[in-house]
Specification:
Helix content: 10-25%
Strand order of the largest sheet: 10-11-9-12-13-14
Shape: rod-shaped
Number of helices: 5
CATH architecture of the largest domain: 3-Layer(aba) Sandwich
GO molecular function: GTP binding; GTPase activity; magnesium ion binding
Radius of gyration: 31 Å
Subcellular location: Cytoplasm
CATH class of the largest domain: Alpha Beta
Cofactor: Mg(2+)
EC number: 3.6.5.-
CATH topology of the largest domain: Rossmann fold
Pfam family, one: GTP1_OBG
Length: 332
Amino acid sequence: MVDYIKINAKAGKGGKGSVSFQTSRSRKKGPPDGGDGGDGGNVYLEVSKDLSTLLPYRYKKNFSAGDGKNGGKNNRKGAMGEDTYLPVPAGCRVSDQKGTLMADLTKVGEKVLVAKGGRGGRGNGHIKMSDQRSKIKDRESSLWEWFEEGEKGQEIYLTLELKLLADVGLIGLPNSGKSTLLSKLTSATPEIGNYPFTTIVPNLGVMTHKGRELVIADVPGLIEGASQGKGLGDLFLRHIERTKLLVHLVSAESENPKENIDTVNYELAAYSRNLMDVVQIYVLTKIDTIDEKELKNKANRLQKNGIKVIPISSETGEGLDKLKDEIISKSK
């Protein structure tokens, strides 16, 4: 998934003003009537319903708008340069070269101006003749051959960062069962395997339950040091920053579920303290792989540490309805 890109946007240059004079049968050169140049085109970013990643910008990095046309005779203004609209997915954050946030685009059709076109130059039609002469002598013509060049358009280097718009985020260490659970809760079909890092891109699915629809994101497994870029790194942590609820999965096969939970929570806090304010539902997964006694012991130990878990098996379906109810309840 392409979710972090740097691009260059350059607005159009303004057209130059015209040097022109009125003419007729009775006069070779009359008052100046040169028109202004057209303004350069602008560059916009606009949210498109057809995009879900920043893939269009993986290889092409430089974009520009059209230049304004030059002014003409009879005070005719040059045509404006053509604007350029760059489509981005919903959830795209736009920052300038200094890291200053320019826009957080979340709705289809929402747009932001990122580079403004240069102003067109003025033509000599702006010159005011104080004596109101209607005819200019040849030796004076150079005084009236004045015009302005068009201004350069703005040029800016941008960072585009995609943060998924999900209601619920599934988090946990690698191989804790996130992809399998997502496939059971929603219609999503993520790659599933019994080995770490099966998920290397975030997957999205929609859960429909009791008249509610919630978007759920399966974020790639976190490991110790993820907030500093280890493993799959912090590239995917950004995708859970918008969620209202986190479903924290820990495998029942783990020797120390509490330690697993602490590892993930530490990485969340290291990346952003705000993530620790998001409500979490703790889920003990893969309970079909252990016996009843071991399940009870692990659940009780977590309970003593203030962690109440919902035991589930994505394979048998046990506990899934209870988990759905809890997700609906906590996401209101």
